[in-house]
Amino acid sequence: HRADDPPVPEVRYLLEVAGAAYVVVAEGLANVLTHSVATEATVTRSASDSWLRVAIADDGRGFDAGAVKESGLRGLRDRVAALGGHVEIEGGGSGTCLEASLPTTPGPHV
């Protein structure tokens, strides 16, 4: 936590949502360490009334999504989708960003 960051409100999410967010961050950081050759990685969290978003961004070499075996990424997508959320991955020649959006309330989400 940096001094200029806004305080993170103390919120309790459903166990399934909190667990999925934890796994996304853990897997994302493991991928940064294993594959990216990054010098910096950033984890961010944001929330609205019905969504929790977690993102991991790095300044590494990026990747070609079509050339990567997606076993770990597919597992993340499946875990998040089972809760009604989605995962977006952007990777080019200068870094990668993995973002998961998880619904925090039951029912349909837009």
- Radius of gyration based on Cα positions: 14 Å
**Uncertain stretches of 5 or more adjacent residues:** none
Strand content: 25-35%
By helix and strand content, what is the structural category?
alpha+beta
Walk me through the structure.
- With about 110 residues, this protein is an alpha+beta fold.
- The protein has two helices and four strands.
- The protein has a four-stranded antiparallel β-sheet, covered by helices on one side.
- Helix 1 (about 15-35) runs antiparallel to helix 2.
- The longest helix has 22 residues, at about 15-35.
- The termini are far apart.
Q: How is this structure best summarized?
A:
This protein has 2 helices and 4 strands; from the N terminus they run αββαββ. It has 110 residues and is of the alpha+beta class.
Describe the secondary-structure layout.
Blueprint: H1 15-36, E1 41-47, E2 51-58, H2 71-81, E3 86-91, E4 96-103
Antiparallel strand pairs: 1-2, 2-4, 3-4
Helix pairs in contact: 1-2
